[in-house]
Amino acid sequence: MANEPELNFEEAMAALEDIVAQLEHGDVPLEQAIDLFQRGMKLSQLCGIKLEQVERKIEMIVEEDGELRKKPFGTSEVESGEGNE
Predict the structure, then answer these.
(1) Which residue segment(s) compose the domain that 48 sits in?
(2) Does 65 have pLDDT greater than 70?
C-alpha cells in the first residue's frame, strides 16, 4: 500500500469489502490470505483516520434562545442532558 496513491474513503471501503468477501469465500491460499488480511488492516486504519478527520470538521447548527449557533459535532444538548427543562 506504500506505493499506491492515497485512496479516498469510498475507494478504501470498497477495497476492504472486496478483501472481506475473498477471505469469507475461503478458497484463498494461506499466503495470499495473510497478504489480504494485512492489506485489509491497513485499509481499516485508513478508513478510521478519514472518519475521525471528517468528524472533527462537522459542526451541528443548534437553535438556542431563538438564535442559530454552531457547536462541535457530538455535543448536542440532548446527549449531555442539558436543555431538558
Answers:
(1) 7-66
(2) no
- Read off the pLDDT band of 56 (50, 70, 90): confident
Q: Model-level pTM?
A: 0.64
CATH of the domain at 34: 1.10.287.1040
Name, in order, each residue with C-beta under 8 angstroms of 81's C-beta and a sequence gap of 6 or more. none
Q: How far is CA 10 from CA 43, 60, 68, 83, in A?
A: 11, 23, 32, 37
